[in-house]
Amino acid sequence: MRALRPLRHRDLRLLWAGLAISLVGDGLWLVALAWQVIELGGGPVQLSLVATLFAVGLVSCVLIGGVVADRLPRRRVMLLADVVRGVVTLTLGVLAVSGALELWHLAVGGLLIGSAEAFFLPSFVALVPQLVPADELLAANGLEGVIRPLALQAAGPALGGLLVAAASPGAAMLANAGTYAASVAFLLAMGSVPLPPREAAGDAAVGVRAVVAEMAEGARYVRVHRWLWGTLLFATITILFLLGPIEVLLPFAVRDQTGGGSSEYGLLLAAYGVSSALGALLVSSRPLPRRYLTAMLLMWGFGSLPLVLIGFLDVLWAMVLVLVVVGLVDAGGQVIWGTLLQRRVPARLQGRVASLDWFVSLGLMPVSMALAGPAGSLFGVAAVFVATGVVAAGAALVVLFGLRLRQDEAAHPLDD
Description:
mainly alpha
C-alpha cells in the first residue's frame, strides 16, 4: 500500500513509534489541564492564561529551535526536548496528586513545555527527509497525519477522560510523563543521523551574530517565495480566530450546552482525531494533487466553516459530526503542506523554514488564547465560533486568488 511504504525504513518506524506514544501523552495533557484548572476553581480566563503561556514559550523559542535544527544532529535535539517535557510534566503530576498544585504551577509548566516543543518541532520536520527518499515524503507525512490525530486527539483524550474520571487530573499528568520516557527510549534506539554535509559545513560559526545571520537567511528565503509567505499569512489570520476558541471555549461549550464532562469532551476530541487520521490517510494514498496549493487552502478554509454551528448545538452527537468534518479536511491539507516544505525548500534551510512556519503561523497564538476566554464571556460562544468559520473561509479565497498562488503552483509542478 502506497501510504505504508515509508515504514520499510527502520529508523522511521522507531521515530513514528516514539512520536505516537508521546502524542498520546499530549492528548492526556489536554484533558487533564482543562479539568485541573476547573478543579482549582478556574474558568475560561484562567485556562486561557495557562494556554497562552504555553504559546508564549513555543513562539519565543521556535526561531532559535530552527537554527539549532540546522546546526546540530536533529535526533539529539529531539531527545533533549523530550527529557525536558518529561521532567516538567512529572513535576506537575506529583504536585497535583499531593494536593500542592496551584494555578501558577500550571502556568510556569506550560511555558516550559512550550519552550521545549519549540526545539522539537523544527528538528522533527527536518529529520524526516533524511530517513526516506523524496518520492515517499507525501506518504511519510501522511503517516504522521494518521498518527498525530489518532494519538493526540483520539486515544490520548479518550484515555485522559477515563483517567480523570476514574482517578484525577494529576494521574493523567503522571501518565503523560511516562510517554515522554518511552519516546526517549525509541529515539535512543535509532541509529545516528548526522546532518547532511552542506549543513555540517556551516557549523563552525558560533555566537549571537552567527545565529541571527542564519535566522535572516531563512527569513529571506521565505520573503522571496510567494507561496510560502502567502500560506503563512493565511495561517496567521486563521489561527488568531481559530485556535483560541477551540482550545479554550470548546470544553465549556461541552459542559454548558450539552451537560457533558471530561469523558464527553474526550469523546469529542477523539472523534476529531479519528476523522483527521482518515483524512491524512486518504490524501497520502493518492499522488500529490497537481493543484496542490489550491487543494490545501480550500481544504483548510472551507473545512473550517462547520465550526459556525458549534455555539448553537446542545446535543453531543451534533458537535461530534461537526468535528468529524473539520478534522477530515484539515488533516488532508496538513499532509500537503508538510510535503511542500520538504520538497520545495532546500535541505540546508528546512529547519529554519520549518521554525519560521511555526513562528509566523503561531505568532498570534498567545493573543488568540488570551482573547478567547474574554471574547466568549463578552460576545458569547456562538458568536465567536461563527467568526472562526467565516474568517477562515474568506482568508483562503483572498490568499489563493489575491496572491495568484494558482499561477505559482502551475509554474512549479511537483511530479510524484
